[in-house]
Amino acid sequence: MKNIVILISGRGSNMEAIVRAGIPGARIVAVIANRPDAKGLDIARGFGIEAMALDHKTFAGREAFDAALATEIDRFAPDLVVLAGYMRILTDDFVRHFAGRMLNIHPSLLPCFTGLHTHRRAIEAGVKVAGTTVHFVTPELDSGPIVIQAVVPVLAGDDEDSLAARVLLQEHRIYPQAVRWFVEDRLRLDAAGRVELLDAPTGPEGW
Ligand code: GAR
């Protein structure tokens, strides 16, 4: 059984998709938010998962908060830490501590549109496809080795909300997939920091 801790900041729909996927061999041991009002906390509790907030505003700074958060996460002895709409920049120490066992999802086709407001920027740039990326977390924001991506069209008349909704459907598909691969011991980083996926799918499952 692999223990998974999920970090959220808000709605928690990706967290919910992972929980609902019911991945064999995975146990979601805790959901932690950096905001006490994160809606996803109640969703997690509804599934009987231990859910708590560690309010970043009550800490002196980023280093102090991330150190406390790492201690809190370690209590659950996680094999994998999943960032699911976790909207905080991470300290290098925090990233190093969970190196090779921390995944993030970003709502763009990385390496395009790192950072915030991805959908608005995609529409402004006039791109014809958009999408989402699951990647291992490295110190540089939204830049770690890519595990899986999904592509959606950008349609005439799309606004930020309609594009975000189309992308989100794909997020809910590929994030559980990436977690499943990790739990099955098929996904890891090699010594050079590249993604290794055993028995990589050749069909749509791997897009
Ligand atoms: C998702 O679209 C996720 O990709 C994005 O925040 C949303 C969270 O939704 N994450 C980032 O932008 C991280 N850079 P959720 O709380 O419903 O899962």
From TrEMBL:
Q: In which pathway does it act?
A: Purine metabolism; IMP biosynthesis via de novo pathway; N(2)-formyl-N(1)-(5-phospho-D-ribosyl)glycinamide from N(1)-(5-phospho-D-ribosyl)glycinamide (10-formyl THF route): step 1/1
* Annotated EC: 2.1.2.2
Task: Cite the position(s) of the site with description Raises pKa of active site His.
Answer: D142
Q: Looking at its record, which EC class is this enzyme?
A: transferase
Q: Looking at the record's lineage, which domain of life comes first?
A: Bacteria
Instruction: Extract the InterPro entries matched here.
Output: Formyl_transf_N, Formyl_transf_N_sf, GART
Instruction: Give the binding site residues for N(1)-(5-phospho-beta-D-ribosyl)glycinamide.
Output: G12, S13, N14
Q: Which GO terms describe its molecular function?
A: phosphoribosylglycinamide formyltransferase activity
Q: Catalytic center at which residues?
A: H106 (proton donor)
Q: Which reaction does it catalyse?
A: N(1)-(5-phospho-beta-D-ribosyl)glycinamide + (6R)-10-formyltetrahydrofolate = N(2)-formyl-N(1)-(5-phospho-beta-D-ribosyl)glycinamide + (6S)-5,6,7,8-tetrahydrofolate + H(+)
Q: Is the keyword Transferase in the record?
A: yes
Q: Where does (6R)-10-formyltetrahydrofolate bind?
A: R62, M87, R88, I89, L90, N104
Recite the UniProt keywords alphabetically.
Answer: Purine biosynthesis, Transferase
Domain Formyl transferase N-terminal: from-to ranges: 2-179
Q: Does the keyword Transferase apply?
A: yes
Function summary: Catalyzes the transfer of a formyl group from 10-formyltetrahydrofolate to 5-phospho-ribosyl-glycinamide (GAR), producing 5-phospho-ribosyl-N-formylglycinamide (FGAR) and tetrahydrofolate.
Cited PANTHER family: PHOSPHORIBOSYLGLYCINAMIDE FORMYLTRANSFERASE
- Which HAMAP family has this protein been placed in? PurN
Name the family the entry cites: Belongs to the GART family.
The name this protein goes by in its record = Phosphoribosylglycinamide formyltransferase
Q: Which organism is it from?
A: Uliginosibacterium flavum
Q: Which gene encodes it?
A: purN
